[in-house]
Amino acid sequence: MTSGFQDPTAASQAKNPKIIERPLSPNLNQETRTPDASPSRQAERQGSQALAIPLNISHPLQGAHPQRLSQFKQRPSTTNALYDPLGIDPLRLPDLPELSTANPASFVLQLNAPTTTLAAIKPPPTLSRGPFRLDYQVQAGDTLGTILQSQGLPSDMVYQILGGLSDQQRQRLTRIRPGETIQLNLDETLQLSSLKLKLNATKRLLVYRANDHISAKVEAVATEPRRQCLTAVVKNSLYNAAKNAGIPDQVTQGAINLFRHQINFARQTRKGDQISVLFEQIYADDQPIKTGPVLAVEITNGNKQYAAVRYTTSKGITDYYSTDGQPLNKSKYSFLRRPLKYTRISSRFSNSRRHPILGRVRPHTGVDFAAPSGRRVVAAADGRVHFRGLKSGYGNLVILRHGSRYETRYAHLMRFATGLSQGSQVKRGQTVGYVGQTGLATGPHLHYEIRINGTPVNPLTAKLPFLNEFDDSEKARFRRETKPLLVELQRNKNQSLLVDARGFDQTDDRLPAPNGETLQ
Question: If DSSP states are collapsed to H, E and C, what string results for 139-203?
Fold first, then answer.
């Protein structure tokens, strides 16, 4: 679209734009004054108070069929309830002229007159004072110029607005699309104070007047998370039940992923199973824009219940835990037994092995994983680099310390990972080096060791420690942080099930689909 102007009279005849007018701080008790008010007119007002009611919508029965008018007369409604105290016959309203923003007719209601009357008066051609706010919904064929002109604003205002914008901002305003909403704010003198156009869910273009100059900027829309708790009872499919209950698909999938190791949802889901989720929805301008994380979830499968809650530890680790503080995926917090993708095991852990190069029998305190040169080697668990360098028969060696008791060693490396230095922190799965055959090695492989209190153990068979065990203070913090979430989940679940039990036909085994059909 391009900016331009059209005849406002022709524009009003062509269409009736859909707008919402919001006068700022209206005062219904304030007397309406016009410039041509005469003393006699003012004296007349002292005898009765007048309230000017501007109307900008057409009557719903304008041009209605006589049969429909008869039905309207027989059926009581809030519309009749509104007109009756005013002494208005709704059947005579279709005779009144159609009202729109292009034809802003008004009515004056005489409140203190002997009989309540409603009389049409001729309105002023434009607004006489502000401030004023207009939320205009763009219609097909609209431009910024026609929108401003249809509201009686100065014809040169569009040039003032576009002249203060960058090329990109100007292009966006000249290409407004039907369905978008433009917010116009006018000051007391009916000069433009600001214009707002929503660009996306979290950004909007703000055009504003500052020191008699038009400026513009893209501002972020404030967002806020809101909690929502929903419960679904399975009748046919878990996904269908969740969808019919209003649970977003990504929330359902997230809940299923949490328990995929405990429940076979493809085979074990049955009628009567339940899913309850407490999750966040992100709002901007009171409109939901995206779904946030799942905060708590409970699934009933047969006679078993599974629950999980989202928790961030004092060390900043966020994950899902059972109600007693155990992570749902414990494998994430235990040592890796094989810290690389290997071809084969070329030598196992042994207390007496003949060394292939030295020819002497001596303990082999680790496991050798044969792999191509340059293959990535990762840290077996979170830890700190205790040693990085060349060490006798180990060749290039990395030693990681995991707390005060545990240690892992990675030997015969071709080279070390970039940025790895003594004292640096590493995460589980982070690259520490690459497979080589430095030191006493007959071919490219990784020599991998795990030591507990300085004693080597077999990485393939030893009982490996769980590295995320909560201490007493962390357990107390976990209970304090997660209890409100679990209580809220349970309370909303009980309320939802109670409502379902009151209005649910237990004998009906059909599941309504979103399109109104039923699934057997």
Answer: CCCCCHHHHHHHCCCCCCHHHHHHHCCCHHHHHHHCCCCCCCEEEEEECCCCCEEEEEEECCCCE
Distance CA 310, CA 94 (A): 60
Helix (H, G, I), strand (E, B) or coil at 95: helix
> Is 304 in a helix, a strand, or coil?
strand
Beta bridge partners of 134: 21, 184
Proportion of the chain above pLDDT 70, given as a percent: 71
Give me 452's structure tokens.
Answer: 């507990």
Closest by alpha carbon to 56, among 111, 128, 136?
Answer: 136
Q: How far apart are CA 261 and CA 19, in angstroms?
A: 54
Q: Is the dihedral of CA 426, 427, 428, 429 positive or negative?
A: negative
Asked if 161 and 215 touch (Cβ cutoff 8 Å), the reply is no
Determine how β-strand 395-402 pairs with β-strand 406-416: antiparallel
Token reading at 124: 């002023």
Q: Is the dihedral of CA 514, 517, 518, 519 positive or negative?
A: negative
pLDDT in tens, 97-108: 333 333 343 333
CB 110 within 8 A of CB 88: no
Beta strand pairing status for 50-54 and 106-110?
A: antiparallel
Alpha carbons 232 and 300: distance in angstroms, whole number: 11
Q: Hey, how many other C-beta atoms are within 10 angstroms of the C-beta on 179?
A: 9
Taking only the tens place, the pLDDT of each residue in 474-498 is 999 999 999 999 999 999 888 877 7
d(CA 431, CA 378): 4
Q: Which two tokens stand for residue 125?
A: 């051609």
DSSP state, residue 122: P
pLDDT of residue 96: 36
Which residue in 440, 464, 462, 450 sits closest to 365, CA to CA?
A: 450
In DSSP notation, 409-460 reads EEEEEEEEPTT--TT-EE-TT-EEEEEB--SS-SSSEEEEEEEETTEEE-TT
d(CA 130, CA 107): 20
If 0-12 CB within 10 Å is exposed, 13-18 middle and 19+ buried, where does residue 48 land?
A: exposed
Instruction: Identify whether the C-beta of residue 275 lies closer than 8 Å to the C-beta of residue 252.
Output: yes
Strands, DSSP E only, in 211-313?
213-220, 223-233, 274-284, 287-301, 304-312
